[in-house]
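User: Could you check the structure of this?
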Amino acid sequence: MAAAFCLLASGGYALNDVHDRREDRGHPVKARRPLASGALSTAAALMLALPCLAGGLWLGWQVQRLAPPVADRGLGSLGPLAFCLAYLVLGLAYTLVLRAVAGLDVLALAVAFVLRAYAGSAALQLLPSRWLVLCGACLALFLALGKRRLEASQLGAAAGRARPALLAWSRALLDRLVDLAALLAAATYVVYTVAPDTAAKVGGRGLLLSAPLVVWLLLRARRRLRRDAAADPVELLLADRPTLLGFLAWTLVVLAVVYRQPW
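Assistant: Sure, the predicted structure tokens are below.
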């Protein structure tokens, strides 16, 4: 499923860049993208996008043949291919409509994460923890709102021209929404670590030990967003050594809890 969604995401990004190429030429950073700069033709981008989308759907179909739905109703009745199709439709809707509507644009990104989570679980013939999916969706909202915060701050008066949906946001409002998303992500993660289903799977509530690291990582990302320390929230994860060390520590704690003896 990872390969299927990589192909679908790649094809979706290519179509998005084709759609936004004229708008991107007025953006100080996006103007350097291959399509916006003229280094890549629209025809070449489409020739890349369409096989990627077709390949992603084909892989989703192949996975579904090996892992049919595990339930007769609800999300468990949907197989990997259904989630791939939903992801593709959502991506097209985002490119054509949703990205221009403040609020719906960031919600679409959160829903895209939920679809990825359920698709991976469907491939394993499992249903993921609702609390973990909700935590992931809140984290996706945090990153999406953080990106809007950076754009609004760094583009200044040109923000509306670069992305019309930014006209509906103010830095103060975005700061409050980023804080709310961070709070919800931290709270839902804590609830996930102590939920009965989680405790039954890992043999206790030891995962709660990883919660302080999650809270610290969110607080650090929030602080760096306010300082405009990166051009994109992803850079907060890749270019900040303390953040990378924090993720490593969180991974080690989770592995130690999952593979220890119950207590």
